[in-house]
Design goal:
2 copies of one chain form a homodimer.
Chain A: H1 11-35, H2 41-48, H3 52-58, H4 62-86, H5 94-111, H6 113-122, H7 125-131, H8 133-148, H9 158-177, H10 186-198
Helix pairs in contact in A: 1-2, 1-4, 1-6, 4-5, 4-6, 4-8, 5-8, 5-10, 6-9, 8-9, 9-10
């Protein structure tokens, strides 16, 4: 994984080298920026074991590199939540699926907390939100499913409820960064925050009597 | 309001001039940055009717200026919510006070939506959050009051619930910026989102019968 390729490599070999370099650069970007948000392009090239020419050939700016690293983290959220959904019965209630989604997505987000902070300062909020599109589509689908089941409220738009889920995941990540929330408590806190908010307002809590 | 002061002004006169200049600069910063987040220090000096020397004398960097403008907006939220609280009966239930707080704070936040976006890209999230301290103290007090009344939940910390209020106000502001939420709908949407989330989980909705 260096700039000096073997003499006259074929196109297949060149493409495989490029893919290996890109993967090494994104791994290095995520780990360097998570450790130290001020990490430079030169630091990241060094950690990836590639030259600056190779790095800038794939990612012409810090913004392009951070965007690609963010896209990879979002793809990981989607892959993890797809795997979780595949492991659950197809008729599992939406709130159970949401609980699992919170746990699996938090794991991924927790590993990328500082990357998000870096991205937040580099990218405008609408751009940042747009890069989360694939994960937000999963949230939209889950909310629509809960509404169809009568479990989730229909008085607020799916788009707003998805924004709330997105906003509170990142609020939890910031609270962990600030030392105000323990990262192992975050999934339970998110679950306790999001489920009553999403629940159909008129649905009564299951309870055998009126008394306290 | 110019760099050329009258010959040998006394200290009182100089202080009054400085205060007028600072107020004019902050007004100009808020209106310029709200219209165009890329507005430069020179644009802001021009709009305030002061010279660059005066501007940089009070605010040595864009970051210092945006921080001061943010502090002024937060002070306005606090002043407005104090005025609202003073106009309510002292025994008003915390959820009624929260409804009024949402309406009055949204008005102020709505006028400063783009300033917040600018601040979000200039300041680290913990710094940004710390500048909201005075408004967050009001939220903490209100949540503690609702808990003492038995209306608000006690299974999550006051700090986390205040973070949620803060996060969702700003999520609403971003949704308005993105054209996904109408700014006149935002207070009702925030109320419908926050009240069920804050309510004591075991408290039953007031209802005369068990029926649907």
């Amino acid at each position: 994984v260096t700039d000096a390729a073997a003499a006259e490599p074929g196109p297949v070999r060149r493409r495989a080298d490029a893919e290996r370099n890109i993967a090494a650069i994104l791994d290095a970007a995520i780990s360097c920026l998570s450790e130290r948000p001020q990490a430079t392009m030169a630091d990241i090239a060094r950690a990836a074991g590639v030259g600056r020419v190779t790095l800038y050939g794939h990612f012409p700016s810090r913004e392009a590199l951070v965007t690609a690293a963010l896209d990879r983290a979002v793809a990981e959220v989607v892959a993890t939540s797809d795997a979780v959904a595949a492991g659950m019965p197809p008729d599992a209630p939406a709130d159970d699926v949401l609980r699992q989604f919170i746990r699996s997505s938090w794991d991924v987000l927790d590993r990328h907390r500082r990357l998000f902070t870096v991205a937040q300062r580099l990218l405008p909020p609408d751009h940042l939100r747009a890069r989360h599109g694939p994960a937000l589509t999963d949230v939209d689908t889950l909310i629509a499913r809960g509404r169809a089941e009568g479990r989730f409220r229909t008085d607020l738009s799916v788009a707003w409820l998805a924004t709330v889920v997105y906003g509170l995941f990142h609020a939890a990540a910031e609270a962990v960064n600030a030392g105000e929330l323990d990262q192992t408590d975050a999934p339970a806190v998110l679950e306790a925050t999001l489920l009553p908010l999403l629940a159909t307002p008129t649905r009564r809590a299951p309870s055998s009597s009126e008394g306290p």
